[in-house]
Amino acid sequence: MCGFDKEKGPGWLMKKGITLILVGHINFIMGAIVHGSILRHISKPDGGLTTEYTAVNIISVSSGLLSIVSGIVAILVSRNLPVSKLHIGLLVSSVLNTLLSAACCVGLLLAISVTVGGEGQGLMKGCNASMAPINARAPISVDCPFDTTRIYDTALALWFPCLLLSAMETGLSVWCFVVGLTLRGIGPCGRAYREQFGEEGESLARRKLAVASAHQA
Question: Where are the beta strands (DSSP E) in 106-155?
Fold first, then answer.
């Protein structure tokens, strides 16, 4: 991460920003698919609320939106390195996205664990049946408004890619946060960047002074 410099650094930052935007869009779309194909069946069964799944999906969608914002800020910084206000924006957006994406990873892991460990019982709360427990992998005759086997497979097929995308968002946001610290001259990477910037400034000043002396002569 300390390899960020004035020549290759902006290009790397722009690529990371574009990647964040793409990953954020995909995660947002997959969160919408999860809501449309799964949560609409189980969000309010008989007036109840499946809070664990709903909360995870809200965090996932929010993480996707914030990743898009962070990617846009990263691109703006890559095009305007001297602007200090953009550095602060990069720091704030990246640290918030890191926390939200990490929370999304934890939530998705819990949702997957609960679903697999309980054999999909949490996904069956929209069914009307007096029998218990209800197993989504081996469904019994129950009054369900949806295909019980398909909703279990669909949930896991969507949650695993969302988990991977959230992990990518976390890693990219951490990288952008370190770059923001570097641009502000904070930490060992920041000091190295400032020293490099100072040496370039001194050499430029010497060249200007030499040119001015030549003109005077």
Answer: none
Pull the structure tokens for residue 68.
């898009």
Written as one letter, the residue type at 131 is M
Digit-coded pLDDT (tens) for 81-137: 888 888 899 999 999 999 999 998 998 898 888 877 776 666 666 565 555 445 655
Classify the C-alpha dihedral 104-65-48-36 as positive or negative: negative
List pLDDT tens digits, range 154-173: 778 888 998 999 999 999 99
For 107, phi then psi, to 5°, come to -65, -45
User: 148-183 and 51-79 are packed helices; what angle lies between their axes, rounded to 10 degrees?
Assistant: 30
| Close Cβ partners of 101 (under 8 Å, ≥ 6 residues apart) | 63, 66, 67, 166, 167, 169, 170, 173
